[in-house]
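Standup notes
- HV: blocked on the assembly model, inputs below
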Amino acid sequence: MSKLNKDVSQKDVVQAVVVAEYFGNEFAPITNDTPLALLPLLNVPLIEYTLEFLSLGGIEETFLFCCSNVDTIKQHIKKSIEKSAGWSLTMQVRVIVSESCRSFGDCLRDLDAKGLIRSDFVLLEPGIVGNIKLLPILKKHVDICKADKGAAMTLVLQEAGVGQKGRCLYEELLLVATTNYRVLLHQKLGVSKKRKIEVPLEMIMDNSSVNIYHNLKDTHLAICSASVLPLFSDNFDFQTKDDFVRGLLMNEEILGSTIYWHRISGSEYAAAVTNWRMYQSISRDILHRWLYPLVPDMGISSQHRNYVHLQNNIYRSKDVHLTQNSSLIEDVIIGSGTSVADKTNVSRSIIGESVKIGKNVVIEDSYVFSNTVIKDHCDIKHSVIGHDCVIEPQCKITQACILGDGVKLHKKTVIENELIQSQKPKDELLTNKLNEKAYKLKIQNCSTEISDSEEDGLLSRKLLRLHIHEEDVPSDDESFKSTDSEDELSYTTSPVPDDTNLFLNEVIDSLARGFEDKLQCDNLILEINSSRYAYNVTVKEVNFNVVKAILTLPFQLFVGQAYLQSLRLLLVYFSPILTNYLRNVSAMGDCLQAIEEFASTNNELNECVAAVLNWFYDKDYLSEEVILDWFSSIDSNTRFYARVQPFTNWLQQAEEASSSGDE
Amino acid sequence: MAFKQEFQAVILAAGKGSRMHEITAGKPKCLLPIGNKPLVWYPIHKLQHIGFTDVILIIFENQKVEIQNALDKLGLLIKIEYVTVKNEDQGTADSLRSIHDKIHSDVLILSCDFVSDVNLGGILNLFRMHNASLCALLLNTPTNQVAVPGPKIKYKPERDLIGLDAQTNRLVFLASASDFESSVSLPKALIRKHTSITMHSNLIDSHVYVLKHWIIQYLQQESSISTIKGELLPHIIKKQLLKPTKVDYNVSTLNTSDKNDIFAFAKESDLDLRIRNASGFNDHYGDLKSSYHDDIIRCFAYIAEPEVFGIRVNNLPAYYNINLQIIDKWKKLSNEKELVRIDSSADIQSSQVDDKCIVWDSCKLSEKTSFKNSVLGSTCEVQKFSRIFNSVVMNNVTIEEKVALENCIVCNGAVIKSGSTIKNCIIGSQHLVPEESVHTNEILTVADRLMEL
């Protein structure tokens, strides 16, 4: 009865539950020292965004559920309230501690046991930022509940087209729902390579029409009825919200609960920092002001407006020391007390407070947290550098390196795609030690001989952590997408084209784009390799197809121009690629085979095949023996034979001449 | 003709009516009476009304004379070209293939059993607007269904699964629900391309299609396709996901010549391409793809407005229902044409013929008979003291004295002897119902006639 009274007295308080604990080590080594809630996002702790969003959204009471680093978070909240942060004025925040919880589900079960939640509430997974008005959605949920007693949850999903950066690749969502927003099927496709999607027939037949959506992203935000918590308690195997949704939909009859969804679009935005890629895309979105009014120059949850918003999306704190020759190019936020020395370029990056950056430094697409020192001539791209790090001169940190707090790197250290932390890991080998203040967290890339499987892992890992900027490696996940779509598009053709063919098309596309946009060949190699794994073709086929692709390109890029001329241009441009693939005798054989095959179907090449072979020979891609060996196997009645013969004759003569010269 | 026609119209009337064989035995399906007109009149009239001057009518060879005679009587202005098919098992696509030399432009295909007040301008404009390869007209399911004569069987309509892109109304999926057992599998590429698909399960495919000319040519090559709905449409719809191979010109000419893929037919003219590229128009949003995703093959669906009436008279309930409703719907169906309810040559002595009855030519209705909401075909004879309620009586039927007929369909040439009471029955053609017989919910027909079907 006492509970009932409470209900009546506090009926109108709108509540939210924030689970602040991220169960996983996605953000290691940064989260070794800082809890995810305090991870700086544009130099403001993540939790401030969440709380500010909730209070602006109309929430009056928030339960902050913590499992570890409790004191740090408590202190932070206390400090924020003292500083009278924006949210503290209208919203009460209560920190709930339960150190025994091991999953999201545990937290909710614990919450159920505590009996703090009285009515509908907003449930937030860790790391959410947003600017949605929550009250209308809550109201809608209440209306739905009136019509459907079993309605347990309203998922909040944001419209996001295929290819949008804000879509987390691991959470590619497929949603099947009725026209009145009842969810029938909720599937996270992830990166699965499955080509078909199964939708139960009865789902379609029972409703006059259903909608199948693939243009949504999960905001990790949900409106819950009070029945959600008991449901979590009853089903102790629900570990995450996705488990919950799946379980409810599967056992709809048994549990008698239904799930609805709400679409947000237009200027409303919400997303969750679930991995570095999302961290990256959310940072960018905030810089691009999608989260308005939560933008740096408005002061996020603080009364002070620290930043000024300048042209090209540059946010600069007032006491930043910039020299005249240094330049902030675009999408940069730079915290107070930071100094940037001469001839240093910073673009698409976030620089924390009191960071010292030396001369001639290049920082691109990177995140540098507070109090770090970066000395002269460093090169930092696509990386995250924690608090209090010291990077000595001429270091090169690229390709999704994550440096934990307090790491010190010696002069001229080059790291690529590594996780570095300052403390010595407990059970790791000494070989991973760079110095006393830098230990590699995982063995990657260290072995000189990379076997195929490891390389595969490495590539996928690269895809995993940070989204490398388009201008650098355009393919990164785009190529995966295009390969995906392309081979699936052709899936419906009557003769299913084999993977090798698709691979060839892929390579042609990559190279064509590479040439047109003048991309670096190293990146193209990376792209070709990733295509190779996607289509599972052998090394032989790779060599063969790469050569064939280059031979094909003149028709695509230089329509109507002399074949040989344009081919030569391409060959010169792509020579690093050729060097990479034509490494041994068998590769040369593949190359010759490609030339032979292409020439047999193509007149242009046939006419100038001798010149092409000569080029390959001159540049040492093909050795004499291999050519002669191959030549002896050609049918001597073909025109092709006749074309090649002069060249081989010359070769033989040259050989004889040289051997006689030796004597 | 000075101008090339934009569309040619084709009516497929070489159907056997296998879904209502009880009443189509020995009679062309397209001549079944609906109100005071044969079934095929409705689509022909529709075409005539929107301005077609020619139509190709595909019929069975052995029914040609009968159909031609019947249509000549109707006084249609449109020029009908009769094309006959011999083989009874020929599919709709086969029929279409057989007339390919008569087709010189895009085609509008109608089925002879299409009765609707929909404005065909809608689908034609949709076709024009998107320069579509294929457009299909979809109808909402009619709601009111009355009890059907014959044995009480639960009538299960055939249902289609029709997937439409919610933004653009692109037709992206079409299959019959009976093709699936427990789940429908969609290619991932499809949902990545059309990120918001509405899957309908109770729309009715009206079998009104607008096809680009090249599809007819393509059909010529793909000889394995025999039906439009079952094979051609799903085939073309699937091909939308395909892209033409870019490296066309690199492949040796020897290789390409033997097998023409669909893109050898579906070509976008250079002008169209330039217009599309130059135009700021985009049919969809949500990704950065150009309009129509650069597809050359584009299928669209036109869903008729909810208030539109339309059915396919290809089964008993539909046939029976349309006849009961015809007076109400007539005005719209015929575009304000006057309904000749009672033919001038009919000899009506009865005083109890309500205003929902339709009487064809040379009918003889004796005195002291009663008629309600019924259709009486030509040269029927109804003798004294009989009453006919809610029934369809076809041609040359003789109904003797004191017969009570309720909710029945009586086929050509049947004779019902005096004193019979028949309710909810179907009486096959040429059937003779003996005196004083009482039947309810039965199919009365000469048994071997049914067998031969």
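- HV (later): unblocked. Confidence is low (pLDDT under 50) at residues 1-10, 443-463, 469-496 of chain A. The CA atoms of residues 140 and 146 of chain A lie 10 Å apart.
- Next: hand off to the docking folks.
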